[in-house]
Write a structure and sequence with these properties.
By secondary structure, the chain is mainly α. The protein is about 75% helix and about 0% strand.
């Protein structure tokens, strides 16, 4: 009985701290959202108003009227969405090959491939830009997409999920007359859906926030992505902080929607990947 009571007390205390840390982590998002609907003078007011005394959407209207924010949003969604879809396709095929197929030098190739994770992307900016320049992809959205189509991280993540899939399923499908492509698409791929969901969110976030490469490639104002465009607002001498908060909020909303839509797969992917039998 004492052990049960101690456990209950421990659960109460631990849940309290979890809730407290959750509130602390959500507070910057709350402050960003509420500040975007204040007047500029209220944002820097001391002591601050924890709850806006007046609500206004004029900051959002100004962002979309004074800047091509709608175009920037489309550019970001197009680049991040298409990059992630293509990455999932290439990573799933490569991970399946490394996990289930047998070919000469497989382990050596996989080790060399994964070793590229140790190379910072900033080191490759110059050669990547020269390649994009030679291919006519500078100031083109596709120039932002192609370097993100195949990454070692995606292959590494999905290979772990394919490794956990029983080989007996693959052998049974082959006995039933299914080819390698059908086995991959109809038998093995549905098993790794949680991993694909986790990879989708992680890569979408990474491409969405890929400021440096998108800044280098998108040189015209119309070719900027939302993160790069909003960053230019932060560099302006305009003292309207509420206006800048509205721009940052516009950049954050799509990320929240993507996470909410894929949260189930992301949670399952992380939990499954954390447990090894």
């Amino acid at each position: 009985m004492k052990l049960i009571r101690r456990r209950e007390k421990f659960d109460i205390v631990s849940n309290f701290f979890v809730a407290l840390f959750a509130i602390l982590n959500l507070f910057p998002l709350y402050w960003l959202f509420t500040s975007s609907m204040k007047n500029s003078s209220d944002v820097v007011k001391m002591p601050p108003d924890w709850w806006p005394t007046t609500f206004t959407l004029s900051n959002y209207v100004e962002v979309f009227q004074s800047q091509p924010a709608l175009r920037w949003t489309f550019n970001s969604l197009y680049v991040a969405g298409l990059s992630t879809v293509l990455l999932v396709i290439t990573s799933s095929m490569a991970a399946y090959a490394f996990s289930k197929l047998r070919f000469k030098g497989k382990n050596f190739i996989f080790v060399m491939f994964i070793s590229s994770l140790m190379v910072p992307k900033e080191v490759m900016i110059v050669p990547l830009f020269r390649i994009a320049q030679d291919m006519g992809l500078v100031n083109d959205l596709h120039g932002m997409i192609w370097p993100n189509v195949a990454t070692a991280f995606g292959v590494f993540l999905l290979k772990g999920f394919f490794d956990s899939a029983p080989d007996a399923l693959r052998e049974a499908s082959r006995i039933d007359g299914a080819g390698e492509v059908r086995t991959f698409l109809q038998i093995m791929l549905p098993i790794v859906k949680p991993g694909i969901g986790a990879l989708f969110i992680l890569n979408f976030v990474q491409v969405w926030n890929d400021y440096l490469w998108q800044l280098v490639i998108g040189q015209d104002k119309e070719m900027k992505t939302l993160m790069v465009g909003i960053a230019t607002l932060m560099q302006d001498l305009n003292p309207n902080f509420a206006y800048k908060m509205a721009g940052a909020t516009v950049a954050a909303i799509p990320m929240l929607l993507i996470f909410i839509l894929f949260q189930r797969y992301f949670t399952r992917g992380i939990s499954i990947g954390a447990v090894k039998e």
